[in-house]
């Protein structure tokens, strides 16, 4: 964009326009709106399963798994905190993509020293999965998009664009 004398002021002045563009994007039936509708359907199915008993409640169960690395993981952790407040009956966890690869992506599991995660302590029986990766091409989240297909039929990606490597990987299934 154009250079300006005060880039911070320029960013602040852009906020209303950016918020307006986001609101307009949700008015059209586009990829964001379709994805959020499908996520809502998955959450409703999960909640119904808990009510009717087709999904057992037990320690270690994960209903919604959110993963990413670095800054995307920080965002995932905050989102999980908010989501857990919205759905207190669901077990929602944020786990580093690198830790998931260490636990489940190798012939020999790599223990997560100092963290409460283990293969036996995490029940990944068809959880709803959200993979957060701004670039959509970071190694660990991209590898998790492939790995987690064997654990879940409901995998979503939150990326900066729809046409990222992780997006292509998930659309192929």
Describe this structure as you would to a colleague.
It contains six helices and four strands; from the N terminus they run ααβαβαβαβα. The chain is of the alpha/beta class and 173 residues long. It has a four-stranded parallel β-sheet with strand order 2-1-3-4, with helices on both faces. Strand 3, helix 5 (139-147) and strand 4 (154-158) form a beta-alpha-beta unit. The protein is globular and about 55 Å long. The N and C termini lie far apart (37 Å).
Q: What's the topology here?
A:
Elements: H1 7-27, H2 31-52, E1 64-68, H3 71-86, E2 92-96, H4 97-104, E3 128-132, H5 139-147, E4 154-158, H6 165-171
Parallel strand pairs: 1-2, 1-3, 3-4
Helix pairs in contact: 4-5, 5-6
Strand order of the largest sheet: 2-1-3-4
Shape: globular
Helix content: 40-55%
Low-confidence residue ranges? none
- The tally of helices reads 6
Mean pLDDT: 86
- State the total count of DSSP E strands: 4
Multimer state:
single chain
Query: What is Rg?
Result: 18 Å
Share in β-strands: 5-15%
Secondary-structure class: alpha/beta
The termini sit apart by: 37 Å
Write the H/E string, N to C. HHEHEHEHEH
Strand count, sense and barrel status of the largest sheet are: 4 strands, parallel
Summarize the structure.
This protein is α/β, with parallel strands linked by helices and 173 residues long. It contains six helices and four strands, in the order ααβαβαβαβα. It is globular.
């Amino acid at each position: 964009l154009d250079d300006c004398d005060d880039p911070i002021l320029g960013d602040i002045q852009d906020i209303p326009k950016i918020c307006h563009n986001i609101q307009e994007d949700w008015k059209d039936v586009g990829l964001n709106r379709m994805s959020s509708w499908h996520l809502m359907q998955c959450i409703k199915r999960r909640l119904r399963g808990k009510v009717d008993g087709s999904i057992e409640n037990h320690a270690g169960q994960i209903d919604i798994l959110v993963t990413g690395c670095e800054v995307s993981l920080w965002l995932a952790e905050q989102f999980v905190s908010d989501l857990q407040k919205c759905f207190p009956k669901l077990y929602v966890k944020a786990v580093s993509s690198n830790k998931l690869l260490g636990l489940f992506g190798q012939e020999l599991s790599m223990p997560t020293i100092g963290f409460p995660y283990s293969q036996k302590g995490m029940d990944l029986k068809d959880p709803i999965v959200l993979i957060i990766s701004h670039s959509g091409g970071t190694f660990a989240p991209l590898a998790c998009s492939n790995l987690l297909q064997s654990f879940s039929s409901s995998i979503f990606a939150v990326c900066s664009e729809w046409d990222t490597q992780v997006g292509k990987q998930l659309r192929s299934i």
